[in-house]
Amino acid sequence: MPETRETAPDPGPVLSVVVHGPNVQDHLTGLLESLAARPLPDTEVIVAAVGDWARETAERHGPALQVLALPDGTGDAAARAAGAARAGGRWLHFVHAKDGLPAGAPRLVAERAAELPGTVDVLLLDHVHSTWRASALPSRDGPLLARAGGADLALDDQPRLLRLAPLLGTRVLRAGFWRRHGELFATDDEPFAAYAALLLAGRVACLPHPAYEDRRLRPESLPPVAPEQHHALIDRYERLLGLTRDRPAAHAVLYDVMVRDCLRVFVRAGMPPTTAREFFRRASLAALRRRPEDYRRPAGLEGIRRALLEEDAYTGYRALQAANRARRAVRTAVRSGRRQAGARLRDLEYRRALGRPVDPRLAVFSAYWDRGVACNPAAIAAKLAELAPHIHPVWVVTAGNAALLPPGTDHVVPGTGRYREVLARAAYLVNNVNFPNGVVKRPDAVHVQTHHGTPLKRMGLDQMPYPAAARGLDFRALLERVDKWDYSVSANSHTTRMWQRAYPSRYVSLDHGYPRNDVYYTAGAGEVRAVRERLGIPPGHRAVLYAPTHRDYEAGFTPRLDLAALADRLGEKTILLVRAHYFYDGGLSPLTGLRRTGRIVDVSAYDPVEELCLAADALVTDYSSIMFDYANLDRPIVIHADDWETYRTTRGVYFDLMTGAPGPVARTQEELTEILATEAWRDGAAATARAAFRRRFCEYDDGRAAERVVRRVFLGQDEATLPPVLPLERRTPAPRPEEVM
C-alpha cells in the first residue's frame, strides 16, 4: 500500500492553482477573469499558457497571475509539469483551460487543504458539469463523497471512490506526492492520471462540495478519434489494474469500471467495423486476464453482455444490439405512423441527384437567405471569375429578387428542379448564412461559411441564455448545419475565437479577412466620386451614414433619432444617408415623410452597402457590425447608444462597447448632435479610439482577402503560399471624400 512521508508543513502558499492548456473555444478567458477578480492570500495562480492567445489573455491580468508561456502544440502533461515546477504551494490543483471553477471554489479548497494532516496525499472534490445545452449540472459524485465522510481514509477502506468521475481537476494533490510519482503522472491521458492519483495515495480526504466545473465540449468540435485512441482505453485500464495487485477490493471495483467503460465505448463510439471488432477482441482478452477471483457477473441483460464479452462473441453481441434496436424501431414506428412513412418518401428528386457524381466545376453561392449577389460571397465570386474561370458560379435567389440580379447572372430559385440539382452536385457551396437543413453534406463537396459581420452581439450557442435572442431557434439543428462547414472565414482573431465558441465544430478557420472589405483598399478617387454622384451628394457637402441595427425586443424599425430635427441642427451642408437593417423590409414608413427634404436620403434598399460606406464622410451607428467594416476606411465613427443597457441585457454582447468604441459615444440625441455639430466627431480623441479599434478588429482586412480565400479553397494552394496579410501601418484605405472632390 502506498505510504506518505510528509508530516511537517511546507513554506509558501497553501494552494497553487495550475491552469494549463490552450484557449479552447475561448473558455480560458472567463476562467482567468474569475481567478484574477478574487485573489486570495494563501493561493497563487500559475498559468501554463499554451499558444499566443492564451499567453496574451493571461498577461492582461497582470500580477494576479503568474504566466508561463508555452509553445503551440504543448501537450497537457507537459503543461501541467511546467506549471507544477513553477508552483510554490503545498497543494496543487490542476485546472484545464477549457474548464472552470465555481465562485468561491479556490478559497474553499485552500481552507480544507490547510487543515489536512501530512499523511493525506489527495483531496477529492465534488464537481458540476456543463454542456453546450446547460450549465452547472450536478455530478453523480456527491453521494459517494458524502458517504465517505469528513475524515481522511485509505482507498482500500472505501474502494467505491474509484467510481468517481476520472477528472484530474477533482483531485487536489499534495505537491510532494505529485513530485514523487511524476513519471506516472506524465501522461496526456487525464483519466489515467486521475485514477493513478487515487491508487498511489496513502490516504485521501473528501470535500463533498462542488469546487470544479467540467466543461464537456461537443464531440463534433473535436478532432476525430483515431482507432489507436480507442485501443488506448483498454491499455489504460490494464496499466491501472497492474497497480491494484494484492489489493482485492480496489481491483474488483476498478475491474467493474473497466468492463462498463469498454462496453459503453464499444456501443456508442461509432467505430468502423474493423476497428470495433479489434476493440472487442482486446477488451475480451483484458476482461479474462484481469477478472478477479470469485467474480460473479451481474444478473439480467448486463450479465448477458458481460458473458458475450468474455467469450469474445462479437457476432453475438452485435445480434443482441440488433434485436434491441429492432424492438425500439417497432415501438417508434407504431408511435409515429404515417409521419415516419412520409419522411422516407420526401425529396426523392434531390436524392436521385445526390446519386450522380459531384461536378468539380460547379459552385453554388447564396447571401442573406437568397436575397441576391451581395456580401462576402459576391466578393469571392468576383475573384473566382478572375482566378478560376473554369469554375461556374450559380446563385440561389428568391423569385422576387431574381429580377434585381446583375445581367447574365446564372441563378436558380429555391424549390425548383434545377435548384435541387445544383445543390446536390456542386463541388463548392458558399453562403454567408446557413443553407437549409435538408442540404446534404457530400464528402467530396466543400462548404464555405463566410459569415456577414464581426460579432459584438452574442451569436450561435451563446444566444441560449438570452430568451429574446434565442426565441424560435433550434440549437440542435443549428449545430447540424454548422457541422457541414469545411471553412469559416474570419476578419480578425476576436471573430475566430467567438465563432469557435458560438459554433463549435471541426471546420478550418480561414483567417484571411472579409472579402467584402477588399473594396475599402482597392477603390480609388474615381469610385468614391462616382458613388457620391449617384447618391446626389453635392461637392463640399458632408454625408453621414446612419445605419442602426435591429433589436430582438422590437417588432419593426423605428428610428431612435428625430431625423428631421437632427438634419435641421446640422445644417444644409450635411446629408443623412439612412439605412434600416435588412430585417425590416417593408417596415420603413417612418422615413417616407422625410425623403423629400433632400437632406435625408433613405438608402435602405441601396446595394451594395460597401458603396454607401465609400460615399460617407462619417458613420453613425449603434451596435451594428457595419462599424467593424467601416473602420477599415479610417474615417470617423460615432456610436449612438441610447439603450445600451437594455440591448446588452436582452441580447448579450462579447465586449463592452462603451469602453472599446471606435470613436465618441453619445447616449442621447443631444449628445450626438453636439458631437456632429462640433469637431468632436473627428478630433484627436476620436482618432485615438479609432486607431485602437482598427488594430483590434481590422486585423486581416488588407484588400486581398478574396484572393486568399479563392486560392486556398478553389485552387487548393497551401496557406504558406498565399499573399501575406499586410501590416496595418502599410495599408492605404480608399481616399476620403474631401480628398477627391
Automatic annotation (TrEMBL):
The keyword Disulfide bond does not apply. Its main location: membrane. It is a peripheral membrane protein. Pfam families: Glyphos_transf. GO terms for molecular function: transferase activity. The keyword Ribonucleoprotein does not apply. InterPro entries: Glycerophosphate_synth (IPR007554), Nucleotide-diphossugar_trans (IPR029044), TagF_C (IPR043148), TagF_N (IPR043149), Teichoic_Acid_Biosynth (IPR051612). It is found in: Cell membrane. Gene3D superfamilies: 3.40.50.11820, 3.40.50.12580. Keywords: Cell membrane, Membrane, Teichoic acid biosynthesis, Transferase. Belongs to the CDP-glycerol glycerophosphotransferase family. This is Transferase.
